[in-house]
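[job 4417] fold queue: 2 targets
>>> target A
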Amino acid sequence: MAGACVLCVLFPEQWPAMSQPPSAFSTVGLISRRDSPEILDSVVAVHDCLVRHGRGVVVEDVTARTLPGFRGEEASRVELGERCDLLVVVGGDGSLLGVARDLAHYGVPVLGVNRGGLGFLADIPPDQIDVRLPAVLDGAYTSEDHFLLDARVLHDGVETGRSPALNDVVVHLGTMTRMMEFSLWLDDEFVYDQRSDGLIVASPTGSTAYALSAGGPIMHPGLDAIVVVPMFPHTLTSRPLVVPGNNVLRLRLQNSSST
């Protein structure tokens, strides 16, 4: 599959020797998880912290509408990608992944404040905003590159759908759990015919998500690789498959012209 690149900025407290020179993050975009009024205290805390440290702050327009009496600068998500040097996302990993996927082509680094569940990527706890966020502004961070998957749906050779994915692409029959039959190719090399509930194609970032639950391996985020994980295959020999990140995977449904 074709790939793209997203820069994810994290603050690993245990690696102080890897700190960078003071950052050039002069304009910072602020985005929060939607429909979650209980996290507004963290959104306000991030906004106030950035202002105290002399950064220009632009709040996503959807987020701004949830802040009572907000009078600051706001812009659409796309405009944040065009204008900002850093994006701060208040929410869980899902919120951060959504922003990273939507704005990856702008190359803007993303920093997460965890108001979700696991917080693998949203690294700053809400009670440490005033400590860790200024540290990042002062250069105490490391960066990781996470590539994107490029998913396309073809019917009779005509593209009918396309979407980038930072975590994974899942192929299944949708409304109810039942067996599907498909063939899989890696570039132009046939891999196998399979009967299963579906197939998960995950990036290294997504290897700790749905693919892990289906028995896939945990992959280091720096790997240029993709993992292919069958979902409950009707065979004793089908196992997860790790392939190079620049390969094209083609899946064709049996008795169908869709790929």
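>>> target B
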Amino acid sequence: MLSLTEAVKTAERCQRNWDHSNPVSSTDIQKIVEVAITMPTKQNRKFYELIVSSNPEFNKICYTHAIDPNNPHFTDREIHRNTQANAPLIMMWRTTDQTQVEASDPFKDEYTKNYFTSVGISSGAAVLTANALGYRTGYCNCLDYDNLMADLEK
């Protein structure tokens, strides 16, 4: 296991070329997820749901939707995907039901700010943990989520 300082140095660089012959062990997935879901949030409320997949078929579908349809860098090319999303392990943070979270909020805080803060803390901790375990990581925010969900429902 890398030291915290070494893990930070490797975490600052996004991985784009993945070794699919070396999957993330289930023990390591469990460690990474445990760290991610136990990070602090405002009033310990649940602002996100975490989707975790090491299933190559599901991950491939996610990769095919790793585009930003509003960015000409992606849409001007016939085939172009963000290779950061072609990882053997994918973790996706998605919003919870905003109305339920807001209904339980006595302070009436801004949901969106707390969601992004919570995801940032959780994903940063997950990345740091994965790098400390010897893995490389990448972030990808270019996901055509609506089309991904439509494909998954088929």
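[job 4417] complete. Note on B: The longest strand covers residues 48-53.
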